[in-house]
Amino acid sequence: MQLDELELELPPAFDIGSKVRTRKLIRNDGTYPGQDIGATLAKKGEIGYVVSIGTFLQNSYIYAVHFN
Hints:
A hairpin with a 3-residue loop joins strand 4 (47-56) and strand 5 (60-67). The chain has strands at residues 19-21, 26-27, 40-42, 47-56, 60-67. By secondary structure, the protein is mainly β. The protein has one domain. The strands form 2 sheets. The chain has a 3-stranded antiparallel sheet, with no helix packed on it. It has a two-stranded antiparallel ribbon with strand order 2-3.
């Protein structure tokens, strides 16, 4: 994707229910309720499933992923 392209012009890379794996450690940036900022939410290599797809700033997809 080029810098002048909007991600939303393309279909999402993942569908709801897709199995995904983290590529790096995910920490709470303050947007996940009930956990301290900086708390580990998912470790590198963990498997999760896409539960919803939203958008960010009308140009990017964001995925909510459930990890066991």
